[in-house]
Amino acid sequence: QVQLVESGGGLVQPGGSLILSCAVSSSVSGFTFSSYWMTWVRQAPGKGLEWVSSINSGGGTTYYADSVKGRFTISRDNAKNTHYLQMNNLKPEDTAVYYCNTRYGSTYWGKGTLVTVSS
């Protein structure tokens, strides 16, 4: 079993910033955080899941959805088994529950953290 716990969500005004964290742990042998891609996905109220960003195991390769490119930055600290999503210039349409996930055989998800962008 791989456990992921998101944190850092909250209420922010348009144009503001937040940084989300995803702490990853495992109770199964064979899973090493530094060996796997990590991903952020979000779900806006009343809408489906939207992929946001992914980062490779070493942190040198990143991908972003067009809707967040240039505003969000994904990163990871393999020594801390944690990855991050720095979100700048937030817009009301970024309001969503943000989930982190990783694939190790199955896809494991955290429970999410709510980001609300509103004045």
Any overview of this molecule?
The protein is an all-beta fold and 119 residues long. The chain has strands spanning 2-7, 10-12, 18-26, 38-43, 49-55, 62-64, 72-77, 82-87, 96-104, 106-109, 113-117. The protein contains no helices and eleven strands. 0% of the residues lie in helices and 54% in strands. Strands 2, 4, 5, 6, 9, 10 and 11 form a seven-stranded mixed β-sheet that branches. Strands 1-3-8-7 form a four-stranded antiparallel β-sheet, with no helix packed on it.
Largest sheet: 7 strands, mixed
Percent of sequence in beta strands: over 45%
Mean pLDDT reading:
96
Topology order in helix (H) and strand (E) letters: EEEEEEEEEEE
Structural class label? mainly beta
Basic shape: globular
Helix run count: 0
Rg, Å, rounded: 14 Å
Give the low-confidence spans: none
Query: What distance lies between the first and last C-alpha atoms, to the nearest angstrom?
Result: 40 Å
* Share of helical residues: under 10%
Secondary structure tally: strands: 11
What key phrases describe this protein's structure?
119 residues, mainly beta, seven-stranded mixed sheet, four-stranded antiparallel sheet, 11 strands, 54% strand, globular
In short:
This protein has 119 residues and is mainly beta. The protein has strands at residues 2-7, 10-12, 18-26, 38-43, 49-55, 62-64, 72-77, 82-87, 96-104, 106-109, 113-117.
